[in-house]
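Why do we care about 3D structure at all? Because function follows from shape, and shape follows, mostly, from sequence. That is the central idea of this module. The next example makes it concrete: a single protein chain, its amino acid sequence, and then its structure expressed as tokens.
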Amino acid sequence: MASVPKTPLVPEPLQPTEPDGSPMHPADALAEGGLTVVDWLDERTQISPGLRWMMYRKVPKGINWAYTLGSATLFAFLNQAVTGVFLAMYYQPNVNGGAYESIRNINDNVFLGQFVHGMHKWGASVMIVLIFLHMGRVFFFGAYKYPRELTWIIGVVLLILTLAMGFTGYLLPFDNRSYWATIVGVNINNTAPFLGPYIGDFLRAGPEFGATTLSRFYAIHMMLIPGIMAALIGFHLYLVAKLGISAPPWLKAQEPEAAITTVEV
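And the structure:
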């Protein structure tokens, strides 16, 4: 019996061909299609000049691994954001056992839940350590001086927000340790002059710890602080790309043409 020829997935008139008319290899056709999509988007968004301005820039000679601490901190923030989204899919900000049981359910029953929770939990400590190292490098290298003062100020604000994000996230498991540690932390803030009592009431969502306290911490930790941090990080990176990075302090002043080299970051 004669076999029925297979119908091609793509009609022959629409199949991509090489300049000489021969059929194009599927891998080459896929790459060509991807480039076509990129060109289509770039023609309408004009994003390629901005990417070239951001990616290809001049940096001083003599830089070392200490200059990668900022990128490492950014990677830690992205890790917290991604793992936090997955944890939020199963977390229940409920003081009547729901919060604690949801964390236990993530660790015991959810596929890779303990792994994701561990990445988020230890990633918070890693991010705090990295941002302190990054700020220390900038300070001791004198990179906060003119014209990078605003970059330094934004970095200080990001440091404070990182600590605040760690503080608000500590309560979310709602076990005995996190509950009493958060009470101590809020009471410390409550003793600050002038604004202390208002800060305490804001964090507790009232005069005393209650059901709304956990929801307040969850909203601050999950939405308020990450949103502000994402905006400030974007502005921080823009200033770094616009103003450049400072040369190591042990290098002598050189002519700009001789002291810089073009690299891709």
